[in-house]
Amino acid sequence: MSRPFYVTTPIYYVNDVPHIGHAYPTVAADAVARWHRLWGDDVVFLTGTDEHGLKVQRAAEEHGLTPREWADRTSERYREAWRALDISNTDFIRTTEPRHHQAVQQFLQVVYDNGYIKLGTYEGLYCVDCEAYYTEDELVDGNCPIHGRPVELVTEENYFFQLSRFQDALLEHYETHPDAVLPVTKRNEVIGFIKQGLQDFSMSRTSISWGVPIPWDNRHVAYVWFDALFNYCTAVGYATDRARFDRFWPAAHHIIGKDILRFHAVYWPAMLMAAGELPPKLVFAHGFLLVRGEKMSKTAFNQISPLDLVNEFGPDGVRYHFLADQRFGPDGDFSYEAMVARYNADLANNFGNLASRVLNMAVEYCDGVAPSERAEGPLVASTARVFEAASKAMEHLDFSGAYGAIWELIRDANAFIEEREPWKLHKAGDRAATAAVLGDCLEALRVIALLASPVIPRAAGELWRRLGLDGTPEDQRLPEAAAWTGAPAGTTIDKGTPLFPRIEQT
Ligand code: MSP
């Protein structure tokens, strides 16, 4: 039976429409999901929308709609954006769905029955944008440290989750699972935070009704984060299919932004422990995509819509830019000019030119039929080396490392062509030698299409078709499919039009 693999994105707040900061983790999770499918894993890839809480309630009010009408509308915008980006999620969860309410209520009851939730009064400084309380010291100039906006003094009778009781268990968990939070700088941050001492936090609200009712006291609804985090368990059957849940949990890989690290690496494992469940296998916190050095936000009017970029660069161009063009982990600056330059250099020139060069020569010199001859030249070793390097990098969510490796194979193939000069061999009438050089190049192209398919699935699929190969790259299985066994001879080659037409800077 195939191995289970579970990857998630954060669920996105529906107070906002999708921008490229949301597309970033979604594209990353998609590449990971596609990579694992190539290895034959049984992949669950979850994304969705976070629809409760004050922030959403207020956004709906501002637009003269009920929260549900507003959520229906905005949630659809996310689905639309993910379709445009060829996101291959297997599930899309909305926290307002009955399956989620039911699962959260069951979970809350377990945590309550286990004695980790108590009634109390809370007075604190609340940032509605974060849906979180801050202490006086955490504020910057009296404002929220993340949004730079004023916080509100809120007094409530709340239920409290006794986070403080999990300090030792969390530290032990991170000691025994050193790879549970990555990159390592983020792991250290989490451990440092836990060591400072953990405060119980209020996990219910009476001030709003837009949420999951607390099962034992329905004057309260669950605090939005308490309900949101649980989406990861709802989707794999916590309340409906225990066998499925046990298959995919705790093997979850949560891809998240650094701003929500504390929720995922401190609150979430403690909440799970309180219910007698295991913490997730991995929380990977990436940095922000910045626009001129600033985080994108509604208030800064610097949000870029993924659909606008897809219209200009195609889904593969956008996906490539997010993943291969910058390191996944640290912050990265987004600039249109840099995006055009890298698109032209890497996709139009390197990748696209190699493909059209090889396909054209195969059509011209081999009558458009893939030859059986092989030169067994340097590309044999390059392919093996690149496959190994790309695999290692992908395992560590190092997309730019994986792409660096694949682009080495592209360079090696170009160098091989320059060195062997098949046009001269052809001119000299040496049909066998020409076919042998092109045989190696076609095989390298096949492996390039296969390994590149998690990030640029459309172009990879199209290249596969032009090579005359059966099925799609997605149907292949690693490691066998990456081996230098020789693409089948006799397939019909189609040279087609440029895979990545050049983009002129506007
Ligand atoms: N709803 C919560 C997550 C709940 S998960 C159980 C939330 N939503 S969000 O829509 O505000 O943000 C979702 C994700 O988008 C976060 O991981 C955040 O880091 C990411 N990004 C938002 N803007 C971003 C950039 N500019 N760059 C990269 N990612 C950023 O938080």
**Averaged pLDDT:** 94
Please report the distance between the alpha carbons of the first and last residues: 52 Å
Biggest β-sheet strands, sense, barrel = 6 strands, parallel
Counted beta strands = 15
Which ligands accompany this protein? Answer: 5'-O-[(L-methionyl)-sulphamoyl]adenosine
The largest sheet has its strands arranged as 3-2-1-11-12-7
Number of helices: 17
Class based on secondary structure composition and strand pairing: alpha/beta
CA radius of gyration? 26 Å
Which stretches of 5+ consecutive residues score pLDDT under 50? none
Backbone shape: elongated
Estimate percent helicity. Answer: 40-55%
Strand percent estimate: 5-15%
Would you give an account of this structure?
The chain contains 17 helices and 15 strands. The protein is α/β, with parallel strands linked by helices. The longest helix is centred in the C-terminal third of the chain and has 30 residues, at 336-365. It is elongated and about 90 Å long. The mean pLDDT is 94. It has helices at residues 20-38, 54-62, 67-84, 98-113, 167-176, 184-195, 224-229, 231-234, 242-248, 261-274, 306-324, 336-365, 379-395, 399-420, 422-427, 431-452, 457-466, and strands at residues 4-13, 42-50, 91-94, 117-127, 132-134, 152-161, 181-182, 201-202, 204-205, 221-222, 252-257, 282-286, 289-291, 294-295, 332-334. 48% of the residues lie in helices and 15% in strands. α13 packs antiparallel against α14 (399-420). The strands form four sheets. The protein has a six-stranded parallel sheet with strand order 3-2-1-11-12-7, with helices on both faces. A four-stranded antiparallel sheet has the order 5-4-6-8. The protein has a three-stranded mixed sheet with strand order 14-13-15. Bound molecules: 5'-O-[(L-methionyl)-sulphamoyl]adenosine (MSP).
